[in-house]
Input
Amino acid sequence: MYNEIKLEKGMYHLAGKSFMQALEEADPSAQYAGSPLSRLDAYERQLKRFDIRVSGADCDRVEKFFTTTESAVLFPEFIRRAVVQGMQEAVLSDLTAVVTHCTSNRYQGVELTDTATYTTTNQGTAMPASTIMEGSIPVVLNKYGRVVKASYEAIRQQRLDVFALMLRRIGKQLANSVVTAALTELRTGAISIEIEGTDLAYGDLAALYGMFTSFNMKAMLASPGNMAKILVMNQMLEASSQDVTEIRLPFGTRLINCPQLDDNTIIGVDTDFALEQIQSSDVVLETDKLIDCQLDYIGISINIGFRKLMGNAVKLLDLS
Output
């Protein structure tokens, strides 16, 4: 049962296994099916075990994690979850078709050559071929990181929900810096059209949509300045959506605000086929220091890279 699990530092250092995987292996969620604990994962059951409340009116303070040596082992995972939540709130997850995990900082993907026409094949003639081969250029993953200066004495009395909010913000900003690399990969080699005249018009957005033949423009990425211009177009006012969680153009494309883009380019993307995100690790923390209350410097990092999967799934609108 969850209240009998022995927690120790070494659970963060098992080869080929994350702390959560080790915890889930020791306390499988499947055994709680049909019980009130079925809605909790293995980590959340440990929080319950040590009566650590990370949100709500009765939210605990940071020092609650350090009541015992075992409960202190849960603290790095608390930080990791808050940072990852912030990263997921950035637009990075909206841009990628697939996330690939690899074991090194160099990744050799595959490429699809699919130029032959899809048409009727006469009996006795060779069928047109599509070729999947190893890519010629490996992707080199880059390290993105941040050092958080926060001594234990400074944060021990802080509510956990407030501290998590700070970490979420750091995670979101970290992801925003990664988005710049993703946008660079999307733009490289993409076909573009120039707008007619000097002002961005709805017809330009429709023309970008019309460039997609074998793919569907599911998302349009624009700078805040261009977003403002698009939102006041008459066609957008007439087609205002009842769904306030996202903004869509009248022809169904999702409009995404990208502060990392300049005002000279708008990117149309089929997000199902355009971009592969490659990671050699999850968010990395100095877990031993966190468990031992050595919080003067909290290092947070991730190794990540991007590869365009299918070039025709991306088109550009050039406003320069």
